[in-house]
TrEMBL record:
<protein>
    <submittedName>
        <fullName>DUF4281 domain-containing protein</fullName>
    </submittedName>
</protein>
<keyword id="KW-0472">Membrane</keyword>
<dbReference type="Pfam" id="PF14108">
    <property type="entry name" value="ABA4-like"/>
</dbReference>
<feature type="transmembrane region" description="Helical">
    <location>
        <begin position="32"/>
        <end position="52"/>
    </location>
</feature>
<feature type="transmembrane region" description="Helical">
    <location>
        <begin position="81"/>
        <end position="99"/>
    </location>
</feature>
<feature type="transmembrane region" description="Helical">
    <location>
        <begin position="111"/>
        <end position="133"/>
    </location>
</feature>
<keyword id="KW-0812">Transmembrane</keyword>
<keyword id="KW-1133">Transmembrane helix</keyword>
<dbReference type="InterPro" id="IPR025461">
    <property type="entry name" value="ABA4-like"/>
</dbReference>
Length: 142
């Protein structure tokens, strides 16, 4: 399967869970998806298969910005796809954590929707927004 097809497949794989976390966060299927990590695990399989497709990864590259730039510049489509799948997987995990934590702390779901959108689009920005909302609502940093 071409990297472009896998890219499209990976993007389509995450959309149902994101949609369910926004519109049906307490539905049993949504909870099962969030707690099972099924989709992030599927993405992890894709990640591993494409990360090492071009040969061994120079883990020393992770020690500097120049190393990261070289890794992506020289790694080709497989490394770029692996990087994108990495974002998809961890943004989805972050979104799941936000929904579960909000439910546990009884934070109204309508306050979580904007952070979820930003988790989906900009990962850490959504997590930061949720942390601010949570801190204000619970008056606690933990």
């Amino acid at each position: 399967m071409s990297p472009e097809k896998v890219f499209q497949l990976a993007n389509m794989l995450v959309l149902p869970q994101w949609l369910l976390m926004v519109v049906a966060p307490r539905w049993s299927v949504t909870r099962w998806l969030m707690n099972s990590y099924l989709i992030p695990v599927c993405l992890a399989v894709i990640y591993v298969s494409y990360l090492f497709q071009g040969g061994p990864v120079d883990f020393g590259s992770f020690g500097s910005l120049a190393g990261i730039k070289a890794l992506f510049a020289n790694g080709g489509d497989g490394v770029m796809l692996a990087g994108w799948v990495h974002y998809l997987a961890f943004d989805l995990v972050a979104g799941s954590v936000v929904v579960r934590d909000a439910q546990a702390r009884q934070i109204p779901h309508w306050l979580v929707i904007v952070p979820l959108f930003f988790c989906f689009m900009l990962g850490p920005v959504g997590l930061l927004l949720y942390w601010i909302i949570r801190t204000v609502r619970t008056r606690a940093l933990t």
